[in-house]
Amino acid sequence: MFGKRLAELRNNKGISQYELAARMKLSRGQLANYEQGTREPDFNTLIALADFFEVSLDSFIGRNWIPNDTNKESANVAFFGGVKEILTEEESNFLRESLHLLRTYEFSLKKKQ
């Protein structure tokens, strides 16, 4: 499962195994083994890969995995109490704007203190 996710994230970023291996200071063979599932990275390498792809370790190793799709439906997903909700475009926009207002308000309160 991890190997499949690694390959998907790498492909979505549009980089080759050679390029990712060079950036991560790994051999291309190591990376290929990770993607094929014949080897697993050590903890430090796993963290570095998750940081590189800007994903949580949970999603990277298969816990609460949501595929990195580009379709509208996957872009409008929210989790409430651990339950996945598919949002309409209108709901998604409303929540995004509400979050922006909340963060702006909290920031202004902190500045006053």
TrEMBL record:
SMART domains membership: HTH_XRE
- Stretches assigned to the HTH cro/C1-type domain: 6-60
Keyword list (alphabetical) reads: DNA-binding
Which SUPFAM superfamilies does the protein's record reference?
A: lambda repressor-like DNA-binding domains
A Pfam family reported for this protein in Swiss-Prot or TrEMBL: HTH_3
What is the top-level taxon of the source organism?
Answer: Bacteria
Q: Which PROSITE patterns match?
A: HTH_CROC1
Q: Does the keyword Nuclease apply?
A: no
Cited CDD domains: HTH_XRE
Does the keyword Nucleotide-binding belong to this entry? no
| Protein name in UniProt | HTH cro/C1-type domain-containing protein
